[in-house]
Amino acid sequence: MPVLTMIQAIRAGLDEAMAADPRVMILGEDVGALGGVFRATDGLQAKYGEARVIDMPLAEASIVGAALGLAVSGMRPIAEIQFLGFAHQAFHQIGQQVARMRFRSQGRCAVPLVLRAAFGGGVRTPELHSDAFEAFYAHCPGLKVVMPATAYDAKGLLATAIASADPVLFCEPLRGYRLVKDEVPDEPYCVPLGELRVARAGRDVTLVAWSAAVQLAERAAAALDADGISAEVIDLRTLTPLDVDGLARAVARTGRCVVVQEAPLSAGFGAEVVATLVETSFYDLHAPIERVSAPDTPYPLAGVEDFYLPSVDDVVRAARRTLAAA
Q: What is the pTM of this model?
């Protein structure tokens, strides 16, 4: 199989979907002639035409509103929001319209809509570009939230999202676009939503993460292994639907858990993971669950980003605290 970066895998997935179904179309800022700010849609307008790859104005609410109208009219739009932080400008469309349309129409209107958005730290972006706001959207009933960590999963999860009859927010880690690469099949394939991935097997402590935090957890697991501590790394892949049974089985294997997120601590999705495990796995736990996150402050200027983001040492220390507990 060829080795692709995550951005190459996403581009291949978009191309395959458009070739297979004439209802699939792309709209967003600079997605056409420029090929997207990260070149995820590079060459697609030339291949499929301006009627299927549409440059939109700098107006996120208009992009999402137009995509919603197209979805309920029988198309399968893929709307690009350049950065997840910009989606705040369309939250009234996403939370009050897109996520609720099947409910408010009593099941008459499916919404086969994918919202792609880049996010995450480690690339020295300006303000409002890197914030990890996934918990905002996981709190919108009716909206699926997908968080790939590998190129393979990015392509496979995107195919499943495009085929879904319900709206999907597809969050892509900025750090992973060109730094993450792995084997990706040339042929179409799907990765199911709601099934976590065991990224690394272990017996002493379970590290739970999603998106770019998975690579952070894997580096921490390697550091722990050097000291004789075996850490399992769990990649959630999707936040909604959440693989509750898979989480419970993972924690039962080790009895100790650290949840790692890039978002600020308070009310982040890590808190939902902790609450879920307390409800399902309390008697399997040998120690309190730890959370590793960014602090409860606005995302900082690029020069001090490394002090804001969770580090390998943060994860290692949290894992050691769980192991030291009685």
A: 0.96
